[in-house]
DNA sequence: CGTGAAAAAATAGCGTT
DNA sequence: AACGCTATTTTTTCACG
């Protein structure tokens, strides 16, 4: 993981469909060297994958919420992960510091759908209660770097 | 936005570097038709862009936090957006329902860096106080669909 | 890592429904 | 208006220095 790898990552975070020629130019490398580096970054797991950023408005699912989870007892991260994995509306889940045990980012079609999904989260025996903040408007979204 | 567009989006969310032949197969289309559709989805804004999903552990920045913002007065979303746009550690920002006015997702090198970034958020005249939850462990991250 | 040739994919033009 | 097909250009990929 040197400066060249970081340049490649910056380039491909900005545009995952960049050609190897473009990636190479951004990193000061030939196209073939750029490909070898990128392949290695994927193989080692530094890059998890490539994804399209979709406008939630354009899709059917346009109701977003941040949900704080308060657990009963002290479930392990693995147990929590296993419980949440089956709920497709849960997009992002992290254990956090502070009063809550975990923070979820959820995505649903509409409010009734979101409510139903939160019910499923609650029905997990591990979860005692939840506290939700529904997204009203999205101010900015940046690629993660 | 029909079923074919949705199939294309599903395909490209799973792998943004898929070839038009692959995208076409997923949608039951020829490569050229797949390209035309994808180009249109980008042009209309349904697809905002293509990005690599980077393992935060592998990068220098591996301290994440959810930050609730409580504002003075009633700033417009536009004003809030403008204030946060200059702070690169702010990855995601939304106005939300509930007690807080907005929720941020922030990413920094380490705790001191995060603290400094939150200070910058606080120094914004619009912000009265903040409440942070630092991410301890990431349970799951799914592409947004 | 770079170079250069072969294979694959992307792109643009054209005819069809 | 949208598709498939074909020809051309560009990109990817691989062997070698």
Automatic annotation (TrEMBL), chains A, B:
Lineage: Bacteria, Bacillati, Actinomycetota, Actinomycetes, Pseudonocardiales
Cited InterPro entries: AsnC-type_HTH_dom, Dimeric_a/b-barrel, Tscrpt_reg_AsnC-like, Tscrpt_reg_AsnC/Lrp_C, WH-like_DNA-bd_sf, WH_DNA-bd_sf
Descriptive protein name: DNA-binding transcriptional regulator, Lrp family
GO BP annotation list: response to amino acid
Presence of keyword DNA-binding: yes
Family annotation (PROSITE patterns): HTH_ASNC_2 (PS50956)
Originating organism: Lentzea jiangxiensis
GO terms for MF: sequence-specific DNA binding
SUPFAM superfamilies linked: Dimeric alpha+beta barrel (SSF54909), Winged helix' DNA-binding domain (SSF46785)
Organism domain of life: Bacteria
Domain HTH asnC-type intervals: 1-62
Any one cellular-component term (Gene Ontology): cytosol
PANTHER family referenced in this protein's UniProt entry, alphabetically: LEUCINE-RESPONSIVE REGULATORY PROTEIN, TRANSCRIPTIONAL REGULATORY PROTEIN (PROBABLY ASNC-FAMILY)-RELATED
Keywords per UniProt: DNA-binding, Transcription, Transcription regulation
């Amino acid at each position: 993981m040197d400066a060249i790898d970081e340049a490649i990552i910056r380039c491909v975070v900005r545009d995952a469909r960049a050609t190897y020629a473009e990636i190479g130019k951004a990193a000061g490398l030939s196209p073939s060297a750029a490909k070898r580096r990128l392949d290695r970054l994927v193989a080692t797991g530094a890059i998890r994958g490539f994804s399209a950023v979709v406008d939630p408005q354009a899709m059917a699912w346009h109701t977003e919420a941040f949900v704080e989870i308060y657990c009963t007892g002290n479930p392990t991260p693995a147990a929590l992960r296993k419980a949440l994995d089956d709920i497709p509306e849960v997009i992002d889940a992290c254990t956090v510091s502070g009063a809550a045990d975990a923070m979820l980012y959820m995505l649903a079609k509409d409010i009734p759908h979101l409510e139903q999904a939160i019910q499923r989260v609650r029905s997990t025996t591990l979860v005692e209660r939840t506290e939700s903040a529904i997204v009203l408007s999205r101010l900015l979204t940046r690629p993660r770097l």
